[in-house]
Please model this.
Amino acid sequence: MKKIRLAIVGTGSIAFTHMYGIQRLDEAELVAIMDIHTEQMDTFRKTFPMKDEDCYTDLDALLAREDVDAVIVCASDKAHCDIAVRAMRAGKDVLCEKPMALDLNECREMIRVSEETGRRFMIGQVCRKAPGFIKAKELVDQGVIGEVFFVESEYAHDYLEFPGIDGWRQVPERHPIIGGGCHAVDLLRWIAGDPIEAFAFANHKMLPGWPINDCVVSVLKFPNDVIGKVMTSIGCKRSYTMRTCIYGSEGTIITDNTSDTISLFRNKVGGELESFGIPNQTMELKIPVAIASHNMTEEIRDFINCINNDTAPDPDGRQGFCTVAVCDAIVRSAATGEKIAIDYTI
Model:
């Protein structure tokens, strides 16, 4: 398998996680980095030493390098579209961190350029690589909990001390459901399909100095008459979690991306126990899973396999667009108090 030479654009905290993933893969090699914030890039280089000639503050200079096969976009959300588009036009495949973009028209532009240039374009919705969520989806797809009727997930995080360099998490257009809650939205889309309608409430109590609502609760209508809920809080006093519950006619799954087990609840079949006066009852089975809340190793491995095997990435730009479309409908519902039909037109 050909070793893919990667460049990382944006060297903040998420870039560290990507770099640890690259280091675990024989088929990947980091050859260049770029950041307009030199102090942030210097911090990255203290952990991952890089030669001066491989460190850039100018994106076009980096993209001119013929030895860069693909780019991982780790810059702030509002910069995703510009960086990804320029990289694809320069002949590079792109793995773009979530959210794909903060604006649906920017998402459309990224898809258009990907299709025009023929470059592979993958969106880093990394919850699809978390072992607990993978096992939960396997159980649902195998029918272990019967017909699903309700799904819920949450993105609970405390951003108080983490506004991001230059306050990029605080910009008004970075609604928490788009910037962070897209994890939970994408996860439920992956499991239950594309929601049809959204209704949401939001408030602004935990981060009063930020120009955005910091808590959003949305109710979603999924195909097959499945109901869903997503809670997003970026100011809650709680350890980071993405607790997720999937309710079916024959059982329930409770999982997250930071625990070493998932819970499967099923009806206990009485059978011979009924003769002892023990009726059918709900029992909990603990299923062990690895902990990998940001499993960039497998995400990058999939990206590289797409390049080497000339296959389409998953999730691709169209999947990324659909997740942002749901988030956008939630934002509009919270602002207007109206139920919003979700438009997936690209």
About this structure: The mean pLDDT is 95. Residues 317-336 form the longest helix (20 residues). The radius of gyration is 21 Å. The chain is about 30% helix and 25% strand.
